[in-house]
Design a protein that fits this description.
The structure is a homodimer.
Chain A (H helix, E strand, L loop, with lengths): L6 H15 L13 E10 L3 H10 L6 E5 L21 E5 L2 E6 L3 H6 L3 E7 L2 H9 L5 H4 L6 E7 L9 E10 L3 H9 L10 E2 L25 E7 L3 H9 L3 E5 L5 E6 L6
Antiparallel strand pairs in A: 1-5, 1-10, 1-11, 2-5, 3-4, 3-10, 6-7, 7-9, 8-9
Chain lengths: ~270, ~270
């Protein structure tokens, strides 16, 4: 489906990218509302096939929106963008260890000019649909980053890459859980329907109040924790598989594209 | 979604694969009804990343269901299968030229043990849904192979790979065209909604009666030609891009899996 962004949306997206390019940072949930945001993972060229294969085998957590080949830095989803600078916070990984968090990844690309960048769909895309249906997006309401958790679900390996699935969690009023499933299920290209509803323990999550990434949740009476596959999953694969070098966004600090969320609705 | 095949379906699929393994061949439209069929393209390992990238950039014609890595020959979608033998007719391509059509591709794998095989979704998957809705599948009714056409739509290139989109065509009664769009649109992982409805000329198709692959159509009064992106598109990429070696299925002679079509419904 081809859906056009409004002029206002494009201004909001370009303004946000320009802000991040100048060094500022903010969790991007709710920023440039209605436009798709993306997770980033960039790896040296000799890891690119395995990374793409890992995403193909694990499409719920790793839906690829675009691959920016070695030598290129502009995203086709955001003309004029520069993937090295237009995210608020980057993470630099060496041998599977997070070694730096920086506002600009130009030095990383200078160090590894053969980096291949993967933009991966983000659950923020279907938050637009949830909000339009009057379903509360708690972490936005209280100005926090969405809570994310490592789970006991193993992804399907690809070559040297393996790791567990990471999920994001939103507390949903019990009477709206089915709506949340159906609305997010209409965007299979960006995580789609939840992978799990209501029982953190069976995902191996010991304490819902202490997420592995993002901020603590605020689950209220009558609300059910609903878990979606999360684009931070490649970062778990980096930790488990220890490629020599990688660059990612920092969880919650996404790449903002010019593409409307509605583009991904089936 | 996880959907289980019935025992009868599994017997039908295994019997068909076993028949093809023994050397027989038939167009597979309607065979092992309700189970997903797949297109094949296998390329040497040094073309694998570009091929996977080409499919990622052209998901409507090239939806990847599975990648069988170099050294492996069993499909996870059909336990016990052998991708070298379980298709009725294979095509062998050298430098972009079709040089042989054979009932067994074991010699090709012996010649190139590093072949990486891609199984790509097939429009036969949504034919099940069309038939259940009472929409006639003409080529099945008259015992022919579905007609397929090269078009003037360029796919997005990836590295050395480029080529035009190939489409399959089904004549649909004008009053059922919208139903056909909605039913096929529910399976975005297997070509999804049509790419074009009603005007062959604007796709660059000069004569609907002379398809580039498959058999001539039978379009009757009150029927509209409806075009879906087709998994033969990688064969057009082979012709245009001339990799040194490739193996594909012959159009219409698909790989039959054990996975229900319903698995791919959103």
């Amino acid at each position: 489906m081809t859906v056009l962004a409004s002029a206002d949306q494009l201004v909001a997206a370009r303004t946000a990218r320009s802000r991040y390019r100048s060094g500022s940072a903010e969790p991007t949930s709710g920023v440039a509302a209605g436009l798709t945001q993306a997770n980033l993972i960039a790896v040296p060229a000799d890891w690119a096939f395995e990374t793409l294969l890992y995403t193909q085998r694990n499409p719920k957590p790793c839906p690829v929106l675009e691959v920016i080949e070695a030598g290129a830095v502009e995203s086709a989803l955001a003309p004029g963008s520069d993937i090295r600078t237009d995210i608020g916070r980057y993470r630099i990984w060496r041998d599977g260890e997070l070694t730096e968090e920086v506002p600009d990844a130009t030095a990383a690309w200078d160090e590894h000019p053969d980096l291949v960048a993967f933009l991966i769909g983000c659950s923020f895309t279907f938050e637009t649909g949830l909000a339009q249906a009057g379903i509360p997006i708690r972490h936005q309401e209280i100005g926090r980053n969405v809570p994310m958790y490592r789970t006991n679900i193993d992804c399907t390996p690809a070559g040297r890459l393996r790791g567990e699935m990471v999920v994001s969690m939103r507390p949903i009023p019990a009477g709206r859980v089915a709506d949340a499933v159906q609305i997010s299920g209409r965007t299979p290209a960006v995580h789609g329907a939840p992978v799990h509803i209501g029982d953190p323990a069976s995902l191996g999550i010991a304490d819902l109040g202490r997420p592995d990434f993002g901020d603590a949740p605020d689950v209220r009476d009558g609300e059910i924790p609903v878990f979606w596959a999360c684009g931070v999953t490649p970062q778990a694969a980096i930790m488990a598989s220890r490629p020599p070098f990688a660059v990612t966004h920092a969880p919650g600090y996404m790449f903002i594209t010019d593409v409307p969320d509605a583009e991904y609705i089936v």
